[in-house]
Amino acid sequence: MNRKEFLHLTTAGAGGLFLAGTAWAEEKDKQVKPLTAANPTFVLINARLEEGFIYNDHGQVKATQTGLYDLHIQEGKIASIEATQGKAYTLPVFDAAGKLVLPGLRDMHIHIDKTFYGEPWHAEPLRGKTVKDMIDLERRILPEVLIHSTEKAEKAIELMNSKGTYFARCQTNIEPTSGLKSLENLQKALANKKEDIQAEIVAFPQHGILYSDSEGLLREAAQMGVDYIGGLDPTSVDGDMKKSLDVMFQIALDHNIGVDIHLHEGRATGLPAIEYMIATVKENKALQGKTFISHGFALGQLDAKETEAISIQLAEAGIGVISTVPIGKLNMPIPTFYKHHVPLMTGTDSIIDHWSPFGSCDMLEKAKLTAELYGWRDELSLSRALRIATKDQLLPLNEEGKQVWPLVGDEASFILVEASCSAEAVARTPQRAAVFTRGKLVYQI
């Protein structure tokens, strides 16, 4: 124990402790029953939770008030929350030591079925200029990639855990070169790591549904436990927008699963595809709330009036957008999506693969990038930026500053960071000190 810790524990401080010498040691021994990965029930002590906003004289949020709490975790859920009073527990404990607790993070668009992660560093090979060029490249390299794809996917899951991710929507190639092998290997990895990460799978026709004649394979994949049927650029790759989208939707309807399409096309062909998707989903209630547009670059090429109109339509149809928050010339209309309550999520996309050498798996970094792109620099807006990376845009405090997370009964999936509040965590992206998924400690520095 260093001098600072000694003085903190032997003088009147947080929790009202006045213990010293032998008495303190005996009391501390009662508390320190270390948490192990096998403990389904424990107490997270000295956890910093947000309690509300602090306002200036003009009614503006100037800071965030927090307090220290003990959270009782039982069978993967939060069983009780009480203010920290320095009491001893007979249960195992994990001492948060004043670190901030935030909702667990979700990576809602990631390809871990064909990553180079785990290999010695090398940047991407010479890539093509078009999606079709990349399809040709994949046909050459995928047989070798598949040999070790299970082990690499597991390493990628460990990386995600270290960044605070407890849930991932995993894209997996379904096309003639891979057949169903990519899906099978990914499912093995997820099964091996089922205690560490929760996941959904998208059966993704990376080489086009029509372009590579993959409908039959997608139908087989739909019977193998996938959650979504994907699609790819129905005009520029498949060459027949209506037919491509109809096949995608029909497979989803036939197997009662969702849709998550990769749509990279620009305004000229991408907007008609989005409008067709909206019309189709409105006609089929089974698709509402289960249809997502990944990337959707056409949405970033509309004028303000068009963006407002299409956002309203997306929200009415229950169609979500999953954006990787691209930087450069294309800015997605994320503020407008939020304004009209379009379901919005983000994801890593690639982690060091033949598409890109970038990708840290850090969803908190995505929240920071969003804040930087749209000029969200004050306490309130920085705290709001976190929602792009959490389940159902969950935040500790709502717009009025009322605490809405965590609550008793919530799933115990959360992260611990060295930060005073969520606004600081977004702005500074501190290292994750500990990560829990359904009450299990999956990462600790």
TrEMBL record:
This is N-isopropylammelide isopropyl amidohydrolase. Keywords: Hydrolase. GO terms for molecular function: hydrolase activity, acting on carbon-nitrogen (but not peptide) bonds, in cyclic amidines; N-isopropylammelide isopropylaminohydrolase activity. NCBIfam families: PRK06846.1. Residues 156-443 form the Amidohydrolase domain. Its EC number is 3.5.4.42. It comes from the Bacteria. It is an enzyme of class 3 (hydrolase).
